[in-house]
Write a structure and sequence with these properties.
- This protein is 52% helix and 11% strand.
- The chain is built from 24 helices and 15 strands.
- A 7-stranded mixed beta sheet has the order 3-4-5-2-1-8-9. A two-stranded antiparallel ribbon has the order 6-7.
- The N terminus is likely disordered.
């Protein structure tokens, strides 16, 4: 007799409903994959995959009809006939149905040749043993665990392992190499770390060139999921160890290593970057993907700007400017969006030293106003990134910088409350200048507006129209402008 799973895993009404309808249709149905895995890990998961020995679409439509009859309102089904899948939503859960299948691959493509199959054949094509477990929804053994590859054992041991030989699994679909890295990071907790088995890591090293058949979009999709893990550094270290990082983001690889001249070395920038990324992840309760991209790329300009000065040692002057210029190129290469999301990352990379500079120098109102003006609504994210960037191994130095950093934050709050600079708009518009001085669009208009803006940001005048107007009229003659009669 099969062993029944822990009571409570299949208490949700949808499971009994699917079981009843499948029995009526004469097909076997099973819950498979992530939901089963997360039950044993004690993780919430409302994404339910049902595999059917038969038509997943037919079962989904029959289940939806039953729900509609019982609930007295329509239950809509989304059907994807090209993939043989269907999806419905029921009581907060997203339930996807698919027919059991077996797959084979051509070497030059990750798109499988799909045929109808049994549950066992379907489990064999899964990526990892922990994702191949299934719960039976059949009447005769409802709730039985079907685990042909020892996934429950691997879960207990914290192991990521493929059902087949890793070379075959990764050759069939090389995206699974990135998925292995992601699952190891995603499932790891302070209490239990997940690791990829050695033979699988070795297969990744040998087969990294198979990544060439993947689209950049699919690679970035996995990178994005890695970045929103609780401790993404684990994944990036594994990507580095297997050689996959050099294929995906060689710019990060260039951060590795410490160069020494006259016995003087610099910070190991790769490890520092991963520490900053983890610091941001720990502080970022909203799981802001683009803030994490900014953390990952914040020092990307250091290799190009690295210099050795015998008087002061290693310097990276202007690396934030170089890095900001690199961001669009990296996004374009990876086929990532070149819209406001890229501009947000570029802005944070370009500004990430500014708050630290305020820590080192006297914190003037003028400097704070200019930081607020340049950062705008992203000032809070910038401050979070900068705080995460404090990673010195000298505890006294860290304590001193953090104390000064709190002073910068306090000053930001005071200046923002007093001067409302965060969403600054110049009180003087180009249209107003043309009206007062009777001139067409021309260079002096922009010059005069810039003078007014600088005067406000430097605290020379208040951020009001009246003060700006007086200043404009006083300084316009310097640009050869005179008011209309």
């Amino acid at each position: 007799m099969p062993v029944t799973i822990t009571q409570g895993f299949l208490d949700a009404p949808v499971f009994g409903l699917v079981s009843e309808v499948a029995d009526r249709l004469g097909v076997r149905a099973f819950v498979i994959g992530g939901y089963v895995r997360d039950c044993f890990l004690g993780r919430e998961n409302d994404d339910i995959d049902i595999v059917v020995e038969g038509s997943g679409i037919d079962l989904a439509e029959a289940v939806a009809a039953e729900i509609s009859a019982r609930e007295k309102h329509p239950c809509n089904v989304s059907v994807f006939r090209n993939f043989g899948t269907a999806m419905l939503h029921y009581r907060g859960a997203e339930v996807e149905f698919v027919g059991a299948r077996k797959e084979s691959y051509h070497r030059e493509s990750r798109k499988p040749i799909v045929e109808d199959g049994t549950l066992e054949e379907d489990q064999l094509r899964r990526d990892f043993t922990i994702n191949a477990m299934a719960f039976s929804l059949c009447k005769k053994d409802f709730g039985a665990l079907v685990d042909p590859f020892g996934g429950i054992r691997d879960l207990a041991a914290g192991i990521i392992r493929t059902p087949l030989e890793p070379e075959q699994t990764y050759s069939d679909d090389p995206l699974r190499m990135l998925r292995a890295v992601r699952f190891a990071a995603k499932l790891s907790t302070p209490e239990r770390a997940f690791t990829i088995v050695p033979e699988s890591l070795e297969a990744m090293r040998r087969m990294k060139d198979r990544m060439s058949i993947l689209s950049k979009e699919r690679i970035v999709e996995e990178l994005n999921k890695i970045l929103v893990c609780d401790r993404p550094s684990q994944a990036f270290r594994t990507l580095d160890e297997t050689g996959l990082l050099d294929y995906i983001l060689p710019e990060l690889e260039k951060l590795k290593g410490v160069e020494t001249v006259d016995g003087r070395g610099h910070k190991e920038n790769f490890s520092h970057t991963l520490q900053v990324l983890d610091n941001v992840a720990a502080a970022d309760g909203n799981r802001n993907l683009w803030l994490r991209w900014a953390a990952l790329l914040h020092d990307i300009g250091k290799p190009a700007s690295k210099r050795y000065d015998p008087a002061v040692g290693w310097t990276f002057h202007g690396h934030e400017v170089v890095g900001a210029r690199m961001v669009p190129k990296i996004f374009e290469k990876l086929k990532m969006p070149l819209n406001e999301k890229m501009k947000y990352v570029q802005k944070l990379v370009g500004l990430h030293l500014r708050p630290i500079a305020l820590v080192d120098d006297e914190v003037t109102d003028s400097a704070v106003r200019r930081l607020l003006f340049d950062a705008g609504d992203d000032i809070d994210d910038l401050m979070l990134l900068c705080n995460a960037d404090i990673t010195s191994k000298n505890p006294a130095k860290v304590a001193r910088i953090r104390q000064n950093f709190e002073e910068v934050k306090r000053k930001l709050e005071l200046v923002e409350e007093k001067d409302a600079i965060r969403n600054f708009k110049n009180p003087i518009t180009g249209e107003y200048v043309m009206q007062v001085y009777g001139i067409p669009p021309s260079a002096p208009i922009g010059q005069l507006k810039e003078m007014v803006k600088d005067a406000i940001l430097d605290g020379v005048i208040e951020n009001t129209f009246e003060a700006a107007d007086r200043f404009m009229r006083a300084h316009a003659p310097e640009l050869g402008l005179s008011e209309k009669c």
